[in-house]
Amino acid sequence: MAQQERAVRTRRTILEAAAAVFDERGYEAATIADILTRAGVTKGALYFHFPSKQLLAQGVIDEQFAEGGVPSRDIKLQEIFDMSMVLAYRMRREPMLSAGARLSLGPATNKTFHGGSLPGWIDLTRELLDRAKDQGELLPHVETASAAWTLTAAWTGAQSVSETLTDREDFEDRVADLYGYIYPSIATPAVLARLDMAPDRGARVIEEMNADAEADDRASASESIPA
After folding, report:
1. Which domain holds residue 181?
2. Are residues 58 and 73 in the same domain?
3. pTM above 0.85, yes or no
4. Nearest partner of 84 among 47, 52, 129, 41, judged by Cα
5. Which of 29, 44, 53, 138 is most buried, judged by most C-beta within 10 A?
């Protein structure tokens, strides 16, 4: 068990180091030597977990889905917004997410990673939109596949422009703005009136998630204490 936990920690250390290097230098300029130096692990340890730089970068991309989850909501349009705002909040602060976006969008890496995380985000958004439609949250004309593509493309474009102009300082505001324009065209008025689409929504959802995690930790600790 201790060996398994150590392997998990080593893998995470390598991913975090790789994300930082990819985010700073891009995929093409980053080297395994750079990542080894940042991670402080042996070449053997790195190649045990990731046999190539491409697979290491793919691991960073895949972490976007592990890092981007939010609590389930009764209103699925709220859940989509929460997911988008949490990603916007964390992308400014966490190289893992920032690097994943860079690897997904860079022209030099598009063919290598086949759009990176974008197809996955489109699929996840469509799944939530399908559930929203089943629950009567969407206007009758909405086609969920097209709406999912549009929302993902709009978020991605906002990320790129915000990074270029303000180093993502205004990213959360811009994401809230784009939903403020798009949601009235797809959501029923009754559902729209119930949505929380404030720019600080991502920060508040993160606080909620942290509080839930702390409560789970306390519950687990109390269960492990012998009666």
Report:
1. 67-221
2. no
3. no
4. 129
5. 138
